[in-house]
Automatic annotation (TrEMBL):
Alphabetized GO MF terms: hydrolase activity
Name of the protein in question: Phospholipase/carboxylesterase
SUPFAM superfamilies in UniProt: alpha/beta-Hydrolases
All copies of domain Phospholipase/carboxylesterase/thioesterase, residue ranges: 75-189
Length: 198
């Protein structure tokens, strides 16, 4: 997969940086560096094209996921992160996904896989309208920062609440913050930084 790896302090965590629809592996690097400049970062471009825009998985329309492709792409991305861990000499348990929108959504798919051992994530503008009745992943010991939108034209508030519930119901420690619309304003980035480095 197309990616950028920037080595940080030896033994420090590694951000897996995941852009939104239409983004590239360059978009969120400034955010990652602002959150903690000592961490390494692995910024990955989505492998799927939708009308010339990069995404991490296919969909049939706004909020209508191609569930088969989501499953396939989530495993593909997790496998790529595991291969990168060997190549660049880091541990997968030290990986912290940072996602915006579509990047947050594929991060949730990875986090909910039994074989995934991530312990933290920062997810901005997530949406995960997937039936999880057969998923019992225990997330106690997992910490997540969620940034959710009031009046978000893409993610209704009840869907944002569902994302909070996905993590809380599985025992994760959840910190969530509300912003206006489908956005990532500076103030929530600073809040995320404080949460991460506390």
């Amino acid at each position: 997969m197309l990616h950028i790896f920037k080595e940080g302090k030896k033994g420090a965590p590694v951000f897996a940086v995941l852009h939104g629809t239409g983004g590239t592996e360059h978009d969120l690097i400034p955010l990652a560096e602002m959150l903690n400049e000592e961490y390494s970062l692995l910024s990955i471009r989505g492998n799927v094209q939708e009308g010339g825009m990069n995404r991490y998985f296919k969909r049939h329309g706004e909020g209508q996921y191609d569930l088969e492709d989501l499953e396939f792409r989530g495993k593909e991305l997790l496998d790529f992160i595991e291969e990168s861990a060997e190549k660049y000499d880091f541990k997968t348990e030290d990986v912290i996904p940072i996602g915006f929108s579509n990047g947050s959504n594929i991060a949730i798919n990875m986090i909910l896989r039994e074989e995934c051992d991530f312990r933290k994530a920062l997810l901005f503008a997530p949406l995960y309208p997937v039936d999880l009745s057969d998923n019992n992943k225990d997330l106690s010991g997992f910490e997540v920062f969620l940034s959710l939108g009031k009046g978000d034209p893409i993610v209704p508030e009840e869907e944002s609440e569902k994302v909070v519930e996905i993590f809380k119901s599985r025992g994760a420690a959840v910190k969530h913050s509300w912003v206006n619309g489908h956005s990532l304003p500076q103030e929530v980035a600073l809040e995320a930084r404080d949460w991460l480095n506390q």
